[in-house]
């Protein structure tokens, strides 16, 4: 009996010792966020909006709140013991040369290249047999690297070029025209261009799109009448002619114009939402071309892929949810005259042209399959890809006899291949020299059942030999919206995560485009909950199959994916340890009142549509479903103060709600990047800092006092 008592005492002593080893939590004193008495009435239901004042991105009060929040957040992050180790490892792994696919313009071959840690990619060029030279270096556009190159377009003969720049990550662009040979600027900078490319008409001028500058804040005020302009070189921008979108009858939120490769036609797409477009054309060979309607409704996504004289080739999902290629005469271009050239299949089609052929990429359970057709619709060959993953870039100009395509997957850094259009043979053109061995990792595609029984695919990637014991730190990443497909691609930041024994899992949720329009529509409007259910079921699959457990699971997503994370963590706060909503659409009752947000109504509906839609949206809107007395996971909200796509007020309000109502001890912080936007063009230096913080926060709140795989750190320190 005495021995048993002694044993019990030893066990109790050991347990007490273990208790004393537990670290003290990092103390967080959240700034107070004032409340106002703003109340909105929706169909007789009053909805308070106590943090409405945070929508004013120009006020000194909001600026002060941002500074206080960042002070608390960075004060917390600085105390994470391995934050600097993560930053150093990210820098080392990032530091390899990256090259984009070459393209021919005039006498030069151009390509984008980054020597490793440059904040922005540099555009180089060279003549056949000539020396490489810098054509454009965006790293010289601003001292801090936050001005980025966001578009580059050449005249058909390659003698002139126009490029677009973004300052501080904004969607508003400036346009600069240069002589391609001398690289000298040839006229005044164009301003206030938005959601636009540049399409040249000969050497005389080009088409671009924009909105009137809104009253109030250009970062958050509503913009909903897009206009297509023609800029004639040598004339002031104030004289630019409106081609489409200037009248009430032509009012659309998104308008774009592109000139055919042979310079004969201008094709104009007009949309009221991010799905569905009208389609028009003008014959530029005529002195005063009339606007000709190809398609006068927005029931489909349709665009012209090429033309051969008056023969038009279009890609459409009209009466073909997975898309097809049709052909029609420009004299009678309306749908009743369309003829199928490459019919719809059971897999979703993406089409390109090059060298006088069509290249159709199909997604087979989110994996690429590529076929080559001639212009009569005859199958030439299937392109045997280098492996299982994502291929892109199949296309070029009509006279090209070869072009370059890329291939990647979750554990294989992207490589470039030179493809011969006549023989179908290709050779590796460029392979990255990166300090990462893909052979040490594996990807596995699984299928799981969502709440309603729908089968959903998910690709899980991790280090070979990983033990499925429920203790692997895991990031579940999702999007689920806007017909966007998540296909396998390599990411430096995910490589660092997996080096540390992390599992990276990506489900192909409804709302995406992986299985065509039906799959997209199954995650929109009154079906939006399907997306969250799919994500929740993915988390449950990972836990049930011992990839991870609640204590080691983080959920992550950005933009519409930020909504996904916000909705999931408010509906199932018990399911994950860490939540990472980035630049999220989080106030679903008011998203459509900011910038171009009303254009997202195809996916979401709006709170003003009708009472049923209001009730449904309010039922999942993250800002409106944070409940007092609930233990929420450790949360790091991230946004940029110049985000004019999803305004930062979404994230501000959500963070304020969480900080007020969090009942547990888990931190709820917001990290606000200054002089940064929605993500595109973010300098490499800022990106590395962001992910060191995100991964540091994640590992630390999973209970790690040091990184799981210290040997990797030792290797790179040595």
TrEMBL record:
Alphabetically ordered keywords of this record: Hydrolase, Periplasm, Protease, Serine protease, Signal
Peptidase S9 prolyl oligopeptidase catalytic domain boundaries: 488-701
Domain Peptidase S9A N-terminal: 31-429
Source species, domain of life: Bacteria
Subcellular location field: Periplasm
A single cellular component GO annotation: cytosol
Reaction it catalyzes: Hydrolysis of Pro-|-Xaa >> Ala-|-Xaa in oligopeptides
GO BP term, pick one: proteolysis
Gene Ontology molecular function, alphabetical: oligopeptidase activity; serine-type endopeptidase activity
Pfam families associated with the record: Peptidase_S9, Peptidase_S9_N
PANTHER family membership: PROLYL ENDOPEPTIDASE
Signal peptide location: none
E.C. number(s) listed in UniProt: 3.4.21.26
Record-stated family: Belongs to the peptidase S9A family.
Gene3D superfamilies in alphabetical order: alpha/beta hydrolase, Prolyl oligopeptidase, N-terminal domain
Function summary: Cleaves peptide bonds on the C-terminal side of prolyl residues within peptides that are up to approximately 30 amino acids long. Has an absolute requirement for an X-Pro bond in the trans configuration immediately preceding the Pro-Y scissible bond.
Name by which UniProt lists this protein: prolyl oligopeptidase
